[in-house]
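Encode chain A's predicted structure.
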Amino acid sequence: MSAKLMVGTELAAEMVARAGERAKKLVEETGVQPCLATVLVGDDPASATYVRMKQNRSKKAGIGSRSVVLPAATTTEELVAEIEKLSADPAVHGILLQHPVPAQIDERAAFEAIAPGKDVDGVTMHGFAAMAFGEPGFVSCTPGGILRLLQAYDVPLEGAHAVVIGRSPILGKPAGMLLLASNATVTYTHSKTRDLADIVRTADIVVAAVGRANFVRGDWLKPGAVVIDAGYNEGNVGDVHFEEAAEVAGLITPVPGGVGPMTIALLLEQTVEAAEALTRAVSETVAHQLDHLS
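Encoded structure for chain A:
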């Protein structure tokens, strides 16, 4: 193996620790504890495990958590109603809808029920637009975590050619937008792209987010390329054939231990940011009302 590993575990731990310090400060100064609400529909074991992991990390960071578990037969209307309740609850600062949801649910409609100020997972159209236009808002957590990882390993982005394999609205598309905002030249591709391997060979940075185990092969890569594997498939296998790619790449993320920890860390960081912003907004509103009365 010639590639250097881009491990997210230590950096993510530092991010969570800093988020915890900010959460503690907010409690001490205002009495408000940041709270992340997780919504799980059905009893998929993997999804339930992810939710528990996020709740445990929240607790360690001093962030409160609220769990909403709905039956697998839940309708879109029922799920939207639950999310709207959380959006209106002043004690909840961030909302995470664990996906995928059961087939009968309109996932986009459910995402759009999340109030923009509580969209700490960066899944709404409002959040995507804000991110794409460089306006205030929360970034999609996995793409945002990828950018943090690239920055931590001093990967030069300006002028680099980045190839994103995948077009998910919460992974591939926002990853490309964030890279573009960092002055990289971005090519979007997917599983049906013609001559995909030839395109990938031109990349300085490869982001694999296609959802297929071992999809990207070692001979697809330019020697010395930076390879970000954002996939997670059964058996702890990413979207990149790790053994082959590690012989060619300059930097590569492992699965697990690469992108995954960064995703959760950014989710918690953005939950604290949401709590700070919402608390500040309430204080400003109260102050304005008092000024008006006087």
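The chain has a mean pLDDT of 94.
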